[in-house]
């Protein structure tokens, strides 16, 4: 709060104090004073949002965290359930090494400290899809702590300035997923599907370092790309493989954090941004009206675009955490040299061995693309954002030996435009919707090689036309379309001669300029010839003819 405002508040406080302290009913009065003083100190105009995320990422593993049942999304209900998943008495957990390795790898990629020793705990709550009545999680000492996620936003008027941000990762804990409740409203029945019960989760807890929906969305998108690059989580939010709880509060900068409301289980990045921005505004409105923000759990309703109260969090807090008695401490080893004698190496989780397997992460990939190909940073974001697009871009570059800046324009505008229009992910480019060869052939660099020389060397015009025709006429080969639609390169010397002559005759000033040594003007004449031929004239021939006619 600026000095002058502080002075004013202080003055009012003194007046209030003098006024009320002379009154007899002092308790009541002090309460009133507190409220008034709060209202004077808090300036709702200066309130800003604070966001901290908890992200549940399903571990990409063939089997569950503590049982051998397979993991699958759309299997028939209760077909992937072992006795342990159903919590039958006498069953015991057996830790899945693959899940531990996934959490360690994710921790390393997010610059966390990996705890050599971590523990499993029971978190008790009652819900029909949790047959044991508790979830095995890591409350006391999780597997990884104190990391950071670097992410970027596109800012500026044209949204082409890359703004780098960081959010701290408090911890990554291993835990079990719960089952699913399926509600049949018509018959007022609830069915339980335990296929998901016991699937391995990584809960990533972020510090409250973000301030709005856009930042949270960018951070979650970056995390999703990282997890997908690592292969530790498939990251498909629509299938619930990544679910986000958004903790939101508002406060005045420099003042302590406000009371948080937790918007649970958001399963789309777009909704995440909307839910957070709605929630920030809702809380600001409450404070501006002089109200109080409740500590509660809320849900996002995508239809109305609002968050709705689910339950009061205050009363819910007693999870009765206790150490999981059926699992020993989880030990991971720094390197092979630190393995104790007699241990089965195949059973051990070795951090340095996992570090060596870390792939190129999205941030590093983007930097490399900008450095090696001279493309714009925002284009590197587009490439990395679409699964398979970087590989495709590099294939095209290699096959055509074209300027990277040209290829990027074609790939990001034409190709992505068409794929988005048809709602086809780039990664599925080899799968044709129409069942014929149009998509793979369109997107194959080998095909580009076939038709690039046949269309044009200079502009994308011909190329784009062929491309569009191929989408319109599935199954037809590029060469066939070039002939049928007359899209080929105009290389007929007589025809080009007469077009060039026409251009030369109608531009005597330009011709004089060239003859007087201003060779750049030749480009203008070349442009005019291309205009006449709709960009399909062979530029090498045109240049030669024009040079001849203007010499
Ligand atoms: N004042 C605040 N405003 C916004 N976010 C906050 C605030 N205080 C804490 N957070 C965020 O709330 C989250 C707390 O997560 P944590 O898992 O520690 O506890 P929890 O939400 O109480 O437990 P549960 O796992 O049962 O949901 C963190 O992501 C943290 O950044
Ligand atoms: Mg949590
Ligand atoms: Mg929480």
TrEMBL record:
Subcellular location: Mitochondrion
One of the protein's GO biological processes: glutaminyl-tRNAGln biosynthesis via transamidation
Alphabetical UniProt keywords: ATP-binding, Ligase, Mitochondrion, Nucleotide-binding, Protein biosynthesis
Domain Asn/Gln amidotransferase: 391-550
InterPro entries according to UniProt: Asn/Gln-tRNA_amidoTrfase_suB/E, Asn/Gln-tRNA_Trfase_suB/E_cat, Asn/Gln_amidotransferase, Asn/Gln_tRNA_amidoTrase-B-like, GatB, GatB_Yqey_C_2, Gln_synth/guanido_kin_cat_dom
Cellular component aspect of the GO annotation: glutamyl-tRNA(Gln) amidotransferase complex; mitochondrion
Cited SUPFAM superfamilies: GatB/YqeY motif, Glutamine synthetase/guanido kinase
Catalyzed reactions per annotation: L-glutamyl-tRNA(Gln) + L-glutamine + ATP + H2O = L-glutaminyl-tRNA(Gln) + L-glutamate + ADP + phosphate + H(+); L-aspartyl-tRNA(Asn) + L-glutamine + ATP + H2O = L-asparaginyl-tRNA(Asn) + L-glutamate + ADP + phosphate + 2 H(+)
A Pfam family of this chain: GatB_N
Enzyme Commission number: 6.3.5.-
Any GO MF annotation of the entry: ATP binding
Quaternary structure annotation from Swiss-Prot or TrEMBL: Subunit of the heterotrimeric GatCAB amidotransferase (AdT) complex, composed of A (QRSL1), B (GATB) and C (GATC) subunits.
UniProt family annotation: Belongs to the GatB/GatE family. GatB subfamily.
Role: Allows the formation of correctly charged Gln-tRNA(Gln) through the transamidation of misacylated Glu-tRNA(Gln) in the mitochondria. The reaction takes place in the presence of glutamine and ATP through an activated gamma-phospho-Glu-tRNA(Gln).
Protein name: Glutamyl-tRNA(Gln) amidotransferase subunit B, mitochondrial
Organism: Takifugu rubripes
Organism ancestry: Eukaryota, Metazoa, Chordata, Craniata, Vertebrata
């Amino acid at each position: 709060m600026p000095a002058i405002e502080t002075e004013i508040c202080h003055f009012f406080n003194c007046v209030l104090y003098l006024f009320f302290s002379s009154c007899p009913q002092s308790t009541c009065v002090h309460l009133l004073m507190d409220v008034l003083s709060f209202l004077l100190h808090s300036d709702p105009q200066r309130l800003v949002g604070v966001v901290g995320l908890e992200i549940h990422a399903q571990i990409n593993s063939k089997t569950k965290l503590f049982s051998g049942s397979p993991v699958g999304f759309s299997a028939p209900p209760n077909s992937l359930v072992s006795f342990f998943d159903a919590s039958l008495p006498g069953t015991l957990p057996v830790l899945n090494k693959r899940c531990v390795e996934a959490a360690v790898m994710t921790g390393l990629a997010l610059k966390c400290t990996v705890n050599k020793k971590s523990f499993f705990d029971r978190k008790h709550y009652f819900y029909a899809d949790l047959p044991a009545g508790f979830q095995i999680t890591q409350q006391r000492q999780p597997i990884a702590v104190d990391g950071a996620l670097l992410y970027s936003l596109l800012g500026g008027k044209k949204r082409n300035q890359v703004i780098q941000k960081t959010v701290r990762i408090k911890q990554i804990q291993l835990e079990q997923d719960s089952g699913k409740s399926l509600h049949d409203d018509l018959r007022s029945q609830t069915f339980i599907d335990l296929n998901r019960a016991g699937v391995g989760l990584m809960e990533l807890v972020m510090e409250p370092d973000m301030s709005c929906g856009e930042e949270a969305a960018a951070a979650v998108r970056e995390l999703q790309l990282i997890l997908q690059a690592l292969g530790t989580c498939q990251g498909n939010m629509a299938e619930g493989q990544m679910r986000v709880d958004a903790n939101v509060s508002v406060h005045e900068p420099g003042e302590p954090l406000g009371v948080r409301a937790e918007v649970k289980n958001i399963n789309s990045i777009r909704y995440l941004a909307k839910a957070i921005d709605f929630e920030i505004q809702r809380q600001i409105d409450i404070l501006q009206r002089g109200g109080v923000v409740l500590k509660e759990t809320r849900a996002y309703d995508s239809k109305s675009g609002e968050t709705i109260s689910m339950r009061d969090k205050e009363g819910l807090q007693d999870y009765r955490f206790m150490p999981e008695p059926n699992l020993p401490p989880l030990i991971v080893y720094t390197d092979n040299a630190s393995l104790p004698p007699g241990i089965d190496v195949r059973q051990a989780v070795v951090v340095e061995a996992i570090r060596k397997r870390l792939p190129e992460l999205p941030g590093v990939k983007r930097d490399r693309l900008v450095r090696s190909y001279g493309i714009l940073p925002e284009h590197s974001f587009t490439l990395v954002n679409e699964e398979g697009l970087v590989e495709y871009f590099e294939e095209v570059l290699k096959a055509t030996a074209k300027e990277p800046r040209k290829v990027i324009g074609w790939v990001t505008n034409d190709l992505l435009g068409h794929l988005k229009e048809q709602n086809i992910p780039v990664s599925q480019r080899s799968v044709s919707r129409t069942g014929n060869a149009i998509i793979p052939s369109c997107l194959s660099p080998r095909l580009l090689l076939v038709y690039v020389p046949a269309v044009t060397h200079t502009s994308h015009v011909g190329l784009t036309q062929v491309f569009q025709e191929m989408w319109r006429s599935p199954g037809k080969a590029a060469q066939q379309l070039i002939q049928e639609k007359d899209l080929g390169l105009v290389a007929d010397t007589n025809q080009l001669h007469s077009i060039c002559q026409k251009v030369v005759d109608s531009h005597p000033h330009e011709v004089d300029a060239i003859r007087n040594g201003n060779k750049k003007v030749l480009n203008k004449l070349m442009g005019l010839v291309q205009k006449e031929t709709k960009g399909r004239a062979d530029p090498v021939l045109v240049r030669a003819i024009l040079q001849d006619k203007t010499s």
